[in-house]
Amino acid sequence: MSKAYRPLNITKYDPFWKPVPAPGAHPDEPNFLCVSFNENWLPYILGALEPLRWTDKYQGDEATRTLAARRAENLIYLFMSAIPCEGDEMRLRQKPGSPCVMQASYDTGNTWVDVFDYAACFGSINKQNPPADYVLTYNNYQQYISEARAIYSGNPDNLTPQGSVEVDSNNLNKPICVAARSVVLAAAAIGIEEARNAESSRQDLYTIVTAGLGAAALIGGAVAAFPVIAGSIGISAALGGKLAFGMGMASVAMPLAGLFDNADVSLFENESAIQDVTCCMINALNDSIPTEVQFRQSLDNCSLSGDSEELRFIVREIIQHPDIYLHFLIEIEGAYQGATNSGIDLGTCPCDSWCQYWLDDGSTSGLTITEGTLQAGPPAYIEDPLIDINFASASSFFVDSVAIELAGVGTQKASVTIYTQATSGGAWDVVTTASRSNGVYTVAINETVFGVRVRSSRDFSHRIDRLELNGNGNEPALQGASCPS
């Protein structure tokens, strides 16, 4: 006698033994099928549909599998929203032009009547059924931001800062930097979600919460993990500060789908562009807590180009929403509390500038002189027909520019080449070569590097009287003297 087939006795039962082709349509798009069954079977059908929510059930690339899994969420939602039948010929559909409204037909599809408006449950952004924890997250966010609006009441002092240390520009520099960078990082995270999500035009609660979680992870991982302080200013702590920030950005930005049209993921992963936009905002705020109008105008007057300009435009549109201003204020408060009351190091603001110089009356340490003779002075200088010097670090640093002062150059100009080192101990890459006379020359670098090299040559002896590096962010340990202020 053959053994009875009992699939539930299989240790790891799965109705799909291997990935299947993804359906090529949304569950709520024509052509439709109608079926009636006893309501007691609905929970069993929902349970049987559960495996369709997981991407590994489908064939294709990641985007195809993700799209199919999200469509399966919609299918399950349609079953969950089933209503009792009124006659054997009843049919259901989403109302054309208003997909949040469910319609029923009792005459085989000749006429239709509205029977339920889903927008009343989750708001107009929710067009499919997300998991229960997503609904809870979104509802917690709505409570969080409602309480923040009430506390703010038009006065930023109600939200920032609440610490015991006297507040001045020195206290606020890094907290404002943290908050500004969080705004730009969160916007970039939402942009990544939009650029990767084939369903982005739908702007449902599922994608908003998913994007919010991604934004929270990005800004939480990039800045100091200071304590959640929402409770100290009367806001519910049901939602962590970073998650609230991410949810706020997603709720505002995701419905603005046109902002992200034709944008590539690489735009939102461009650290240089993120830094440019962050520093533009910080420079406009000038180490002081802005009014709502000042915050909205903080990206109006930047001279940027390429990816930096495209990202600036997107972030500028997003920060026009008043809720983003509230999140910005709360982020300042959290960073301030973490630094002043909990001793948390907020790190170096990527927009803090530094300057080091060598020769003249400055340092002669840290220079590697491959060609040329050092005259220790003071003032110190390097001379010879061929001068080749460099300074390098085991850690990367961001250089805005290098300045060189040449002297002793006669009618025959010196050929000066600037190099940078992209990897520690790696090859030297040419930035520029030019013929130079006596004087001070500044060359823009605007790169994260491990070293800078200067090579100057002519037929007769000449001098380099001074070398200067200007940068921002973490200052490298190059042993140069600090430039006079």
Shape, principal axes of CA atoms: elongated
What is the number of E strands? 10
Largest beta-sheet characterization: 7 strands, antiparallel
- Euclidean distance between termini CA atoms: 95 Å
Q: How is this structure best summarized?
A:
By secondary structure, the chain is an alpha+beta fold.
General description of the model:
There is one protein chain. This protein has helices at about 40-50, 60-80, 120, 130-150, 170-195, 205-220, 240-255, 265-270, 270-285, 290-295, 305-320, 320-340, and strands at about 90-95, 100-105, 115, 355-360, 370-375, 380-405, 415-420, 430-435, 440-470, 480. It is α+β, with helices and mostly antiparallel strands and about 475 residues long. The strands form two sheets. Strands 4, 5, 6, 7, 8, 9 and 10 form a seven-stranded antiparallel β-sheet that branches. Helix 4 (about 130-150) packs across helix 6 (about 205-220) and helix 5 (about 170-195) packs across helix 6 (about 205-220).
Record the SSE blueprint.
Elements: H1 42-49, H2 62-80, E1 91-95, E2 98-105, E3 113-117, H3 119-122, H4 132-152, H5 169-196, H6 205-222, H7 241-253, H8 265-268, H9 271-285, H10 292-296, H11 306-318, H12 322-340, E4 353-359, E5 368-375, E6 381-407, E7 414-421, E8 428-436, E9 439-472, E10 481-482
Antiparallel strand pairs: 1-2, 2-3, 4-9, 4-10, 5-6, 6-9, 7-8, 7-9
Helix pairs in contact: 1-2, 4-6, 5-6, 5-7, 5-9, 5-11, 5-12, 6-7, 7-12, 9-11
